[in-house]
């Protein structure tokens, strides 16, 4: 797998520092609020766990699985709810835990869903924010790193379900996915 990586963008140490920084900020911002962290599967699971470890507050966690990439390198633009939450979010402080915000479509879908379910407050904590990819207005409240316009894998991020287990975030060599690039 490492041979398929062009270069490392964010090392294990970089990610650890970002998780610590944001975990501390969330601890400060959510003291006595008992938020529910909603981890967006599958990509955000590692980020969610690492940030939670840095939080010193009572917090619940739940999982939701939505898909917009369908295995490719670009968002298909159509969001599918694959696995729904088990918790009721009505009247709750919600923190959406994302691996990456690119087009913003998935995030907007989730925010609309949580508003419809009457969440009290919705904030977003993402490992990576790629503002150049936005096609809808969506923003994160807590950001690990601003991402340049690159196709990245590792630390939960995948290409065709592979590379998630890399402990860092790296740029995938274009030769790996050239046949899948949109025109």
TrEMBL record:
Main location: cytoplasm
Subcellular location as annotated: Cytoplasm
Superkingdom, taxonomy of origin: Bacteria
Molecular function, one GO term: glycosyltransferase activity
Cofactor: Mg(2+)
Keywords: Cytoplasm, Glycosyltransferase, Magnesium, Metal-binding, Nucleotide-binding, Purine salvage, Transferase
Domain Phosphoribosyltransferase: 13-160
CDD domains: PRTases_typeI (cd06223)
Catalytic reaction list: IMP + diphosphate = hypoxanthine + 5-phospho-alpha-D-ribose 1-diphosphate; GMP + diphosphate = guanine + 5-phospho-alpha-D-ribose 1-diphosphate
Enzyme Commission code: 2.4.2.8
Pathway assigned to this chain's UniProt record: Purine metabolism; GMP biosynthesis via salvage pathway; GMP from guanine: step 1/1; Purine metabolism; IMP biosynthesis via salvage pathway; IMP from hypoxanthine: step 1/1
Function: Purine salvage pathway enzyme that catalyzes the transfer of the ribosyl-5-phosphate group from 5-phospho-alpha-D-ribose 1-diphosphate (PRPP) to the N9 position of the 6-oxopurines hypoxanthine and guanine to form the corresponding ribonucleotides IMP (inosine 5'-monophosphate) and GMP (guanosine 5'-monophosphate), with the release of PPi.
NCBIfam families per record: HGPRTase (TIGR01203)
Family to which the UniProt record says this protein belongs: Belongs to the purine/pyrimidine phosphoribosyltransferase family.
Name by which UniProt lists this protein: Hypoxanthine phosphoribosyltransferase
The organism's taxonomic lineage, starting at the top: Bacteria, Bacillati, Bacillota, Bacilli, Lactobacillales
Name of the gene this protein is made from: hprT_2
